[in-house]
């Protein structure tokens, strides 16, 4: 299956009976850029990723820097072509463009593992999920293909410096070289700014997409009934619906990762979710079917009445390096038979009635948050020691990603990623989506980000634009999608208005 | 004298009117003037000096004593003090007198022929003589009173100020109180890169110097003053550094020499600069006839010269080195310093910085350097960044290890110039101490005819450290208390007043009162302290008192820089005190005296023995299980608690100390609990100094540091020790070892753990050694990247053909990885693992040790099929079912296995996920290590623990991913 056949739009959604589902034009092809080639090469080094990121973003960053800081002026402000050149600029106000690298002593490091006494002959790679990157004496650098330079951030607000100067972002920095220390004293930062956005054609009526994550079937203390309720709701038979015809107007379900629970034991890995595929040993008879079988059943039921896109997440039995590839057919044998089920990658992008929806199963955001000041990230009660950002923080991070046109900046340094080498970084945002979400978060939060029309001084070089001019007004709904297994909540986004609501399914309802 | 003012200006002080002299015992009836005349005449006759030159300017008679032997009545003796105009002639004059036969006129006009005479103190270095006389020690402050000096207009040196002064007007200060601070010595650290030809280590006759990177950094300052890199051909800018490029090499070299003169450092440092960088530069400059290059010293117009030396020491054997004359600068090579003071697995800059700075260092192989140089300004920039890093590391090491501070303190404590500490052996320290003290009490030190190699000087007597109490091998679960003699040898020397000046010759024994004498267990007799206090005793008392004071000051000091100075001081004092004993026993030394050193060790042995008797007498059930040179290990009995043993240890130390003469002191410091005693000087245990928590795991003489062991051995041994000592679980240790053996035999051990490396030296070519044979093989394979002399050759032992000897089965680890060549697991088990394991388990398991190596877990399976030769390429490899290995035509599974597709898929996926995790963490680590994220890592640092592992992860992941792909994708 390559993509679902575009279903002809049903222009008359509003009048339809709840059991008659509104349909939409769904295009999965944008997700193709996250699909890896059949023959994968794990040879090229990670430098290529940064290199191509710089190649794709430098021009945009420079352009927007000129809007922010003004054009260069003899003797006053200059734009340095290469970072290395600032050495000769005699402490004059200078703007440089490059990729940020934050050196932190306690980043997970496999070399550090060698110093930890252990009984392993060869240390296992550090568990990225349980690490935090406390930040006392970080060193921050900016780098381009010609060299790197240490940054002196003493003139910046420390919160701004922390949040914006994260490994992997391509930025423009204004400041001057401190001859004494050889570092670059930064006094202002400028982003690429949001990528162009496709215009939003009018929709005659309300249509919703539903986003959920962390269904975690088979989780030890999971609320089995909540998933049943969700299923009923999505099939449109949940009885009285307080939102009126909402459920009939849902045109797609996106499952944003972690359909099965994270397994403690790394030794057994994802295979444990398959327990039921093995002949059961005696005494195991009464055990419930393996998690993945549950997932398959759930998806089959939903897909019989609604298009579903299932993305893998950190806990799912797929590859580990981002982008994660779709579930294999053999893991979801029955639901895969239904044309309505799309097994898609993570990150995932599609368009539904020309609304561009983009999101991840949450890893880029979670990893990004680890760079944060610990005090600003709330401690999670359930999983002690594991820090997870608040909803607001997630939204801030998503906003930054949009502004910097990158959806996984910390790849590949602290977020494991595939070694791309074909000169493109698929995580670069060439365009701004209408809905931008991160799954598997601690709590729900949502915000409508409106970027007003910017008057460009010279719009000559705007060949990159897709529709309309660069700098045109943009509207994005950003969403922190909560874990279903912890909150019982799913998110519904109205494609007509980009409004967002949350629905909760739990026994207590 | 070269120095700095407090403000940091450099000063050259020229001292005038100080004349060298030495002593000769008086021959009755010969007048001093006549002796002077006779010597001068002889020198003219021998044509040593022209006729109009007076060498000996003065001879006078003084009363002194010789330091050697106590003579009954301790009479004074008359000596001629012979003063010379120029110290250069000292040797000639002394030789004339030593040989005898000099004709001297007596007052009655009779000519007498002098017999062979012993000279005194003619071998004392002129500079040291001057320092002793003025009371000046190394690295210390002095005052030149206003009006007593003149500033020279016409400078002969590069220093900022030049001063002339009379020797008598110099006021030297003890480095204490306000004179404790050290001067901010200027350091220049540099590293050079040469463009080698493919496969040949750079040679100055052929290969260009292409870059010289420099850090100029004053000692004690937080930041460097300058970072400069000189490059041949253009080089792109580097942030924070100055890049200076030249089109031709002559200009580059001459510019660098100019740079050295301009920055005018006190100290020139780097890594292996003595035996590589400096000789290379000088040779290269000579080759290219760059006339002004050798002018690296501080005296205008005086070129730096270099000569080859042979350094020998018991620790490193004899090896070639270089000595330089570079006026006014100390050459402080961090490689030499670290090899001298630390015992490491490897001394490459990579390993050393991993060890001390906790950072790996990307290493660019010199075969790539040529390519980078031939590239463009960007690739040369890449090289320059690397070269700068190599120039920075030595300074960072110096600061981290406190080397300069410690050396400066050593110079102060022993009173010799800083440069001598680097360029001369250990002996000179004691020589200085001995002369300084003797000078004060009018004792003279005889000249000893020296034999043996120059410069080094042996490291001490070889009969030390005889084990006194044989080790009772075993694994002790009860606490073992350790009693140590504090500063054993120094305190013995003090306690028994052992000295040159207290030693009584057998012929004199009869004339002495027995109560004035003490006889050592080795048979020599010394007078008691009440009769005459030995010079050595005085020196040691002062050193130890000073150490106590330094430690006290250290506690009180607040300023971290002062703290490091004081810590360096107390260390220097301790080292110096311990060096005294070695000095007396060094057979090729300046003043060996076997009676002293043999007596010292004999007393030591006796004391250990007495301690044992005393312990076993006082404590019922206590046994001394081992006694080393200066410590005894006591087991107080079965079932005693740690607390109890500590108390008993404390008490025993106190009680037994009292049976020995002062200042001998027995101290209780630690318990081992548990304790594994393998053999003499080989043991391991958890070390406790309090009852709450052990301090550390202490291992002596146990495997693992040796470089010719692979990592596997080190890791297994340390795991075994963890289990035995920390977990006290023999069973787990055994099953761990069995698991490792089983993994090894089943090819499950990561190749990176099996790599061994040896360095290729010139003489290796004749004999059949694994690394030599492999180097030859590699040269045939690709002369461009093959190892050259001086390189380390890493290898693993492969299975090879039947009956092929091990040395020809060595293979390049990367080659093995890439071609999936089978490893000779048995070789690793039998030749690498077995012995160390047996040694460690023997005390624990006794005769059943062998059970580790036989049984179920030693079954071998061979899974790897070598893809050898050219044929393999053309024979098509049949696909096999990933479930049951049945041959199939396409896809992943055979028809029979298809129903279980999900299971097989997940299994393969799991393998891949694990590799993905390893892959990404390994390669991001390298990218970070390189300090640059936009370029590929070029590293060739085989010492890094992940160097081979990252390549293996690549290969394995590609294979695993290919398998997973066979299950098909449907996007
Ligand atoms: S292998 Fe990697 S981590 Fe090790 S020294 Fe080389 S670049 Fe650094
Ligand atoms: Zn070098
Ligand atoms: Zn099969």
Précis, in short:
The complex is a heterodimer of chains A (509) and B (971). With 509 residues, chain A is α/β, with parallel strands linked by helices.
Compile the SSE list and pairings.
The complex is a heterodimer of chains A (509) and B (971).
Chain A: E1 26-27, H1 47-69, E2 78-79, E3 94-103, H2 110-113, E4 139-144, E5 147-152, H3 158-164, E6 170-178, E7 183-190, E8 208-212, H4 224-235, E9 250-256, H5 291-303, E10 308-311, E11 341-343, E12 348-352, E13 355-360, H6 363-369, H7 391-403, E14 435-441, E15 445-451, E16 474-482, H8 484-487, E17 489-494, E18 500-504
Parallel strand pairs in A: 2-3, 5-7, 8-9, 9-10, 10-11, 13-14, 14-16
Antiparallel strand pairs in A: 1-12, 3-4, 3-6, 4-5, 6-7, 8-17, 12-13, 15-16, 17-18
Helix pairs in contact in A: 6-7
Chain B: E1 2-4, E2 10-16, E3 21-25, H1 32-45, E4 56-66, E5 77-84, H2 90-99, E6 103-105, E7 111-113, H3 126-134, E8 142-143, E9 149-151, E10 161-166, E11 171-172, E12 186-194, E13 209-218, E14 226-232, E15 242-246, H4 249-263, E16 267-270, H5 273-288, E17 305-313, E18 317-325, E19 330-333, H6 334-341, H7 349-357, H8 366-374, H9 377-400, H10 403-414, H11 418-423, H12 427-440, E20 443-444, E21 474-476, E22 480-485, H13 488-495, E23 503-504, H14 506-509, E24 517-519, E25 525-527, H15 535-556, H16 560-585, H17 594-618, E26 623-627, E27 631-635, H18 642-657, E28 666-679, E29 682-688, E30 696-700, H19 711-727, H20 730-745, E31 756-759, H21 770-781, E32 792-797, E33 810-811, H22 813-819, H23 825-845, H24 871-874, E34 879-880, E35 887-888, H25 901-930, H26 947-965
Parallel strand pairs in B: 2-10, 4-20, 12-16, 14-15, 16-19
Antiparallel strand pairs in B: 1-2, 3-5, 4-5, 6-7, 8-11, 9-10, 12-13, 13-14, 17-18, 21-28, 22-27, 22-28, 23-25, 24-25, 26-27, 28-29, 29-30, 31-32, 32-33, 34-35
Helix pairs in contact in B: 7-9, 8-9, 10-16, 12-15, 13-15, 13-17, 15-16, 16-17, 19-20, 20-23, 22-26, 25-26
């Amino acid at each position: 299956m390559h993509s679902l056949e575009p279903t002809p739009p049903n222009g008359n959604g509003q009048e339809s009976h709840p059991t008659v589902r509104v349909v939409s034009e769904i295009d999965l092809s944008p997700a193709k850029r996250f699909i890896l080639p059949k023959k994968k090469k794990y040879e090229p080094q990670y430098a290529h990723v940064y290199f191509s990121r710089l190649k794709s973003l430098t021009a945009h960053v420079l352009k927007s820097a000129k809007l922010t800081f003004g054009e260069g002026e003899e003797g006053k402000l200059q734009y340095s072509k290469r970072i290395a050149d600032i050495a000769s600029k005699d402490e004059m106000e200078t703007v440089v463009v490059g990729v940020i690298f934050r050196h932190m002593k306690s980043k997970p490091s496999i070399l550090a593992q060698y110093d930890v006494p252990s009984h392993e002959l060869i240390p296992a790679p550090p568990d990225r999920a349980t690490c935090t990157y406390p930040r006392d004496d970080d060193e921050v650098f900016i780098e381009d293909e010609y060299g790197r330079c240490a940054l002196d951030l003493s003139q910046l607000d420390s919160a701004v410096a922390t949040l914006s100067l994260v490994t992997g972002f391509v930025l423009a920095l204004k400041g001057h070289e401190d001859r004494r220390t050889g570092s670059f004293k930064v006094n202002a930062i400028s982003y690429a700014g949001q990528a162009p956005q496709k215009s939003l054609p009018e929709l005659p009526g309300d249509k919703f997409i539903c986003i959920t994550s962390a269904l975690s079937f088979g989780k030890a203390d999971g609320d089995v009934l909540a998933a049943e309720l969700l299923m009923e709701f999505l099939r449109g038979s949940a009885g009285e619906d307080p939102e009126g015809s909402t459920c009939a107007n849902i045109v797609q379900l996106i499952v944003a990762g972690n359909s099965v629970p994270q397994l403690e034991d790394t030794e057994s890995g994802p295979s444990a979710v398959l327990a039921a595929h093995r002949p059961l040993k005696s005494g195991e008879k009464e055990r419930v079917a393996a998690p993945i079988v549950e997932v398959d059943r759930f998806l089959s039921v939903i897909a019989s009445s609604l298009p579903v896109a299932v993305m893998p997440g950190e806990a799912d039995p797929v590859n580990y390096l981002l982008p994660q590839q779709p579930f294999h057919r053999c893991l979801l044998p029955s639901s895969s038979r239904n044309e309505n089920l799309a097994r898609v990658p993570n990150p995932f992008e599609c368009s539904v009635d020309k609304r561009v929806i983009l999101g991840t199963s949450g890893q880029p955001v979670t990893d990004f948050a680890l760079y944060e000041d610990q005090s600003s990230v709330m401690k999670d009660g359930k999983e002690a020691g594991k820090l997870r950002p608040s909803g607001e923080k997630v939204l801030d991070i998503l906003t930054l990603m949009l502004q910097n046109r990158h959806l996984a900046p910390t790849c590949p340094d602290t977020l494991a990623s595939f070694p791309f080498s074909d000169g493109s970084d698929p995580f670069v945002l060439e365009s701004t989506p209408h809905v931008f979400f991160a799954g598997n978060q601690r709590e729900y939060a949502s915000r409508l980000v409106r970027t007003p029309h910017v008057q460009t001084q010279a719009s000559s070089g705007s060949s990159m634009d897709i529709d309309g001019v660069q700098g045109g007004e943009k509207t994005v709904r950003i969403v922190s999608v909560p874990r279903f297994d912890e909150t019982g909540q799913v998110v519904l986004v109205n494609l007509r208005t980009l409004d967002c609501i949350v629905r909760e399914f739990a026994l207590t309802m | 004298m070269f120095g700095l003012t407090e403000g940091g200006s450099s000063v050259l002080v020229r001292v005038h009117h100080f004349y060298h002299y030495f002593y000769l015992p008086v021959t009755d009836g010969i007048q001093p003037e006549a002796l002077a005349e006779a010597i001068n005449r002889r020198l003219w006759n021998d044509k040593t000096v022209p006729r109009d030159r007076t060498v000996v300017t003065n001879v006078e008679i003084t009363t002194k004593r010789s330091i050697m032997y106590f003579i009954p009545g301790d009479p004074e003796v008359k000596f001629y003090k012979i003063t010379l105009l120029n110290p250069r002639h000292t040797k000639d004059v002394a030789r004339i007198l030593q040989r005898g036969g000099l004709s001297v006129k007596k007052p009655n006009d009779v000519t007498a022929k002098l017999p062979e005479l012993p000279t005194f103190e003619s071998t004392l270095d002129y500079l040291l003589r001057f320092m002793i006389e003025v009371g000046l020690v190394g690295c210390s402050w002095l005052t030149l009173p206003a009006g007593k000096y003149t500033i020279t207009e016409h400078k002969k040196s590069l220093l900022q100020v030049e001063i002339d002064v009379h020797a008598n007007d110099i006021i030297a200060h003890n480095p204490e109180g306000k004179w404790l601070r050290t001067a901010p010595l200027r350091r220049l650290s540099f590293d050079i890169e040469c463009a080698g030809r493919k496969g040949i280590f750079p040679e100055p006759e052929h290969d260009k110097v292409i870059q010289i990177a420099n850090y100029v950094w004053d000692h004690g300052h937080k930041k460097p003053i300058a970072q400069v890199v000189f490059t041949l051909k253009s080089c792109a800018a580097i942030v924070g550094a100055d890049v200076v490029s030249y089109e031709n090499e002559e200009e580059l070299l001459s510019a660098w020499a100019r740079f050295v003169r301009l920055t005018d450092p006190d100290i020139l440092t780097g890594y292996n600069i003595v035996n590589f960088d400096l000789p290379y530069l000088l040779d290269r400059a000579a080759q290219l006839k760059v006339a002004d290059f050798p002018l690296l010293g501080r005296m205008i117009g005086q070129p730096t010269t270099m000569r080859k030396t042979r350094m020998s020491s018991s620790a490193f054997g004899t090896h070639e080195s270089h000595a330089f004359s570079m006026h006014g600068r100390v050459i402080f090579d961090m490689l030499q310093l670290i090899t001298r003071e630390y015992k490491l697995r490897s001394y490459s800059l990579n390993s050393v910085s991993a060890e001390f700075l906790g950072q790996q260092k990307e290493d660019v192989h010199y075969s790539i350097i040529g390519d980078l140089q031939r590239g463009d300004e960007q690739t040369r920039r890449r090289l320059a960044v690397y070269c700068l890093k190599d120039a920075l590391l030595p300074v960072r090491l110096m600061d981290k290890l406190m080397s300069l501070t410690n050396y400066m303190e050593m110079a102060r404590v022993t009173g010799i110039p800083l440069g001598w500490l680097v360029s001369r052996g250990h002996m000179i320290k004691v020589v200085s101490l001995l002369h300084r003290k003797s000078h004060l009490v009018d004792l003279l030190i005889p000249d000893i005819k020296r034999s043996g190699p120059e410069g080094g000087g042996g490291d001490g007597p070889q009969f030390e450290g005889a084990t006194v109490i044989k080790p009772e091998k075993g694994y002790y679960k009860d606490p073992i208390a350790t009693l140590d003699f504090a500063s054993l040898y120094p305190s013995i020397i003090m306690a028994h007043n052992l000295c040159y000046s207290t030693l009584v010759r057998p012929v004199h024994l009869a004339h002495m009162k027995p109560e004035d004498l003490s006889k050592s267990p080795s048979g020599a007799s010394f007078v008691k302290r009440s009769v005459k206090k030995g010079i050595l005793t005085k020196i040691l008392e002062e050193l130890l008192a000073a150490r106590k004071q330094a430690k006290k000051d250290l506690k009180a000091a607040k300023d971290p820089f002062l703290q490091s100075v004081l810590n360096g001081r107390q260390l220097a004092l301790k080292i110096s005190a311990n060096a005294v004993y070695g000095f007396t026993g060094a057979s090729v030394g300046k003043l060996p005296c076997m009676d002293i050193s043999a007596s010292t060790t004999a007393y030591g042995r006796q004391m250990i023995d007495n301690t044992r008797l005393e312990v076993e007498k006082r404590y019922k059930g206590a046994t001394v299980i081992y006694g080393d040179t200066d410590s005894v290990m006591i087991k107080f009995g079965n079932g005693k608690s740690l607390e109890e043993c500590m108390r008993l240890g404390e008490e025993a130390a106190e009680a037994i100390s009292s049976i020995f003469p002062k200042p001998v002191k027995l101290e209780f410091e630690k318990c081992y609990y548990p304790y594994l005693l393998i053999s003499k000087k080989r043991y391991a245990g958890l070390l406790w100094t309090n009852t709450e928590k052990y301090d550390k795991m202490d291992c002596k003489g146990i495997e693992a540091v040796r470089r010719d062991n692979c990592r596997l051995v080190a890791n297994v041994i340390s795991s075994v020790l963890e289990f035995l000592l920390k977990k006290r679980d023999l069973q787990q240790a055994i099953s761990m070892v069995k698991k490792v053996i089983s993994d090894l035999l089943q090819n499950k051990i990561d190749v990176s753990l099996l790599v061994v490396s040896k360095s290729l030296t010139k003489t290796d070519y004749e004999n059949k050694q694994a690394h030599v044979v492999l180097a030859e093989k590699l040269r045939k394979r690709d002369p461009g990247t093959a190892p050259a002399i001086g390189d380390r050759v890493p290898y693993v032992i492969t299975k090879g053909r039947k009956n092929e000897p091990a040395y020809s089965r060595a293979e390049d680890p990367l080659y093995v990885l890439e071609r999936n060549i089978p490893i000779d697991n048995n070789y690793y088990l039998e030749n690498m693992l077995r012995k160390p394991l047996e040694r460690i388990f023997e005390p624990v398991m006794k005769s059943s040790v062998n059970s580790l190596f036989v049984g179920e877990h030693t079954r071998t399976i061979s899974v790897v099929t070598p893809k050898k030769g050219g044929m393999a390429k053309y024979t098509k490899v049949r696909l096999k079912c990933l479930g049951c290995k049945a041959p199939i035509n396409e896809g992943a599974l055979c028809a029979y296995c298809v129903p279980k597709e999900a299971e097989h898929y997940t299994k393969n996926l799991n393998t891949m996920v694990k590799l993905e995790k390893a892959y990404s963490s390994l390669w991001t680590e390298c990218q970070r290590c390189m300090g640059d994220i936009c370029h590929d890592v070029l590293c060739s640092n085989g010492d890094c623990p992940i160097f081979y592992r990252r390549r293996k992860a690549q290969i394995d992941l590609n294979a695993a991913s290919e398998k997973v792909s066979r299950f098909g994708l449907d996007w």
